[in-house]
């Protein structure tokens, strides 16, 4: 990153247009971008119907500057919205960013954020095409992703009794990382890094669409909570098989060190952004996915919208609550 | 607005999903919406290239709850982004909303905000298709508009020497309203209302595109500031004719009462969201627009990017600074 501003410059020092110029220098524009940053609106070429999703990160609630670098926050802010399009079976073409920041925010931090946004977008060939920068007492990053899918988007409402449930990508790692950071530790490094920067399986959403996934959701609030959305929208019951859920070694280590059942990280943890989807049969599940359960009709023991574990209600923490 | 929540319920009482359900009940979906609120992303049918723009309002900086109703804030938040697409010659198809709100925000206020967003979107046939709700200490509303134009979007960079400059819509009214409110008054009512709810000339942008406008911008930061963007992007000088600028009677009244030259409201005021555009000739200017100036080559007296008034630099306030 080069800049004509001194290393200790703040956003106020750079001014609105100086700061915006410093960010946009970091945003490479793909061939799908007809008009990039700098006009009243950007213009983007999207083949077919447009997928759109907005997610917001708030300092102190979704990130802490002492726990993550500016680049990490940028990566995570972009990943959250890109993952939403992934969960429809789509790919992001462009993003816009709304940034609210205190006047004394170091310009270098804001540039780091912009660099992180650009890096994450680059993973799927998308571009940061515009946004808004405004002053406020709380640091807020709002990211909107627009993009497209190579077929009918995969909704939450298509799961059918007899389908299998499958998972792709790391799940529970970020929650384990957060548990560690909350206790003042910085290791195991793998889970702390997972909390800072999700590794989103961006190829898996479009692959699942092509493979005939009947329903799909990204896990941002917790596996139980997000599969609950699928179960409710589809009018079905989802049952998970605990023995099939991947509980990686670092999660076991954090569980042992913190006196937590590591399965809790997997069932209730957010922020990793893996995908979970339902498929008509185990043979339809693409490589790289793990079958973790099945879909059934509602019945006397489980009403539509229920998610059970080994056939019973789960009685631990269900997931992340925003209010 | 009907709701199963008690009249004094807060967002925390309603919970994330209760609050979202209360909002989305207010969002009618147009036939362009393939998938509306409630999935990982919305799906919208946009004919041709996609215009996209994001704007953010922050409480205390862009609005005050004692100066405007929740509906007013919703109207203004949507208008800001819809106006950006208008300034490209386009129309908004759908918007997403990122809302950061304190837990004790009355649910009724948030519903009023949602109603205002829906009303403003309805003016152009667009729909609120999704968003994100999260807790934070400061009230922030981020709106992203996506849409399309019926031809090549009108950029800021196309103004040419010899073009005429024209304006459509009220300009300076919101600034006069803000001047009044800042002094603790509530009249003249017309300017106070203009500050609370801009009346955006949504038909004028697409009409200007069809009429062959060479450059266009919406006036959100001030006429001088926003025409400065056009002058810089186009490499030209813009000269305004003060006698041609409309200074309506309520602006004159506020000027007299506050000891302000009312032309200042017109030259430097923001928040009204009129359009200003350049056209190849006066005969190309559509009905309803007022010719307010002309475009010329840069020269020894005025470099590219300069906006002059009656041939000279203007030495009052230039416009709104975000940092």
UniProtKB/TrEMBL annotation, chains A, B:
One Pfam family named in its UniProt record: AIRS
Sequence positions that bind ATP: 131-132, 156, 220
Residues holding Mg(2+) 1: 54-55, 132
Domain PurM-like C-terminal: 160-263
InterPro entries: PurM-like_C_dom, PurM-like_C_sf, PurM-like_N, PurM-like_N_sf, ThiL-like
Residues annotated for Mg(2+) 2 binding in this entry: 55, 84
PurM-like N-terminal domain sequence ranges: 38-148
Record's catalysed reaction(s): thiamine phosphate + ATP = thiamine diphosphate + ADP
Binding site for substrate: 62, 271, 320
Listed EC numbers: 2.7.4.16
Entry binding sites for Mg(2+) 3: 40, 84, 218
Binding site for Mg(2+) 5: 221
Keywords: ATP-binding, Kinase, Magnesium, Metal-binding, Nucleotide-binding, Thiamine biosynthesis, Transferase
Functional summary from the UniProt entry: Catalyzes the ATP-dependent phosphorylation of thiamine-monophosphate (TMP) to form thiamine-pyrophosphate (TPP), the active form of vitamin B1.
Comment field (misc): Reaction mechanism of ThiL seems to utilize a direct, inline transfer of the gamma-phosphate of ATP to TMP rather than a phosphorylated enzyme intermediate.
Family affiliation: Belongs to the thiamine-monophosphate kinase family.
HAMAP family hit by this protein: TMP_kinase
Protein name: Thiamine-monophosphate kinase
Organism: Nocardioides marmoribigeumensis
């Amino acid at each position: 990153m080069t800049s004509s501003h001194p290393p200790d410059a703040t956003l106020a020092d750079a001014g609105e247009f100086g700061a915006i110029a410093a960010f946009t220098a970091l945003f490479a524009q793909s061939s799908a971008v007809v008009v990039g940053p700098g006009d009243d609106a950007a213009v983007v070429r999207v083949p077919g119907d447009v997928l759109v999703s907005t997610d917001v990160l708030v300092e102190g609630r979704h990130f802490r500057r002492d726990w993550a670098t500016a680049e990490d926050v940028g990566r995570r802010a972009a990943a959250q919205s890109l993952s939403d399009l992934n969960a429809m079976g789509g790919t992001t073409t462009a993003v816009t960013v709304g940034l609210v920041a205190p006047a004394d925010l170091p310009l270098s931090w804001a540039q780091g954020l912009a660099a992180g946004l650009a890096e994450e977008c680059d993973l799927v060939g998308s571009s940061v095409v515009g946004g808004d920068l405004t002053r406020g007492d709380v640091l807020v990053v709002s990211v909107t992703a627009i993009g497209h899918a190579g077929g009918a988007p995969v909704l939450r409402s298509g799961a059918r009794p007899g389908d299998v449930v499958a998972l792709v990508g790391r799940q529970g790692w970020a929650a384990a990382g957060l548990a560690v950071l909350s206790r003042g530790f910085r290791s195991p490094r793998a889970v702390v890094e997972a909390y800072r920067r999700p590794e989103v399986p961006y190829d898996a959403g479009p692959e699942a669409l092509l493979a005939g996934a009947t329903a799909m959701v990204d896990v941002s609030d917790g596996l139980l909570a997000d599969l609950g959305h699928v179960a409710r929208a589809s009018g079905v019951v989802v049952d998970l098989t605990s023995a099939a859920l991947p509980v990686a070694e670092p999660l076991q280590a954090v569980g042992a060190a913190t006196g937590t059942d590591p399965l809790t990280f997997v069932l209730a943890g957010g922020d990793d952004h893996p995908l979970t989807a339902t498929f008509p049969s185990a043979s339809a599940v693409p490589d790289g996915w793990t079958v973790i359960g099945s879909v059934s009709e509602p019945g006397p023991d489980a009403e539509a919208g229920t998610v059970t574990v080994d056939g019973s209600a789960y009685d631990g923490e269900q997931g992340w609550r925003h209010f």
